[in-house]
Amino acid sequence: MLIANVSPRTGGKTTNSGWFAHALVEAQRQYSPIGFDADHSQQFHAWSQTGDFPFAVKPAASAKFHAEHSVPDGMIGIVDCGHTENHPDITNSVLRVADLVILHMAPTKADFDRIIDPPDKTKIGDIIAMSAVLRAERTPPPTWVLLNRTVAGASSTGLYRDMMEDEGWNVLTTVIPRTEALAQSVSFPISGASKGPFGELVTELENRGLLK
After folding, report:
1. Could you please report the per-residue DSSP string of 89-114?
2. pTM over 0.90
3. What is the pLDDT of residues 24-63, one digit of tens each?
4. pLDDT in tens, 68-121
5. How far apart are CA 15 and CA 11, in angstroms?
6. What is the three-class DSSP state of 66?
7. Order of strands across the sheet with 2-6?
8. How far is the C-alpha of 109 from the C-alpha of 60, rounded, in Å?
């Protein structure tokens, strides 16, 4: 199975990819993740080295991702895609083989506009929809929005959840809070990922039948 983490611009994808993959390891349900760093910054790969990850993260920032990389049987691939606004060719290649797309966004007008009404008019929803032409199934991969960098008790979370659903998007119940621990975690080892929101994310994806 291959899970593509995407967003038009900076959206916490690298941090979320690392913590989510660790939550899969800690879930004690025999998940074996493998990471793919499809961002030219290669921060996910570098973090895996300094953070001593219990799984490999392969450099994969290529517009030929679909031809150059595959997920070994029995494993779950976690792809940290670069910004779609800057590298649509890489995202397009990943979408050709993705089994699930997680669209990361903060509950802000800036992120909402980047998705619904982007300055360059290239909507990420259209990119996902058009990927169907190049996919074996001729259907786009299932896509769910993950609200990220949320503030506890803020009305913005529910507001933008409703707005995204009104636009026809599936939105996960799990949210990833804005915390200093997460913000500063890149480059350091991860522990306890399954006990917080990323453990809740694993459980929700299981309950929705989205994890194979």
Report:
1. HHHHHHHTT-SEEEEEE-SSHHHHHH
2. yes
3. 999 877 899 999 999 999 999 999 999 899 999 999 999 9
4. 999 999 999 999 998 888 889 999 999 999 999 999 999 999 999 999 999 888
5. 9
6. helix
7. 57-59, 33-38, 76-81, 2-6, 100-105, 143-150, 170-177
8. 31
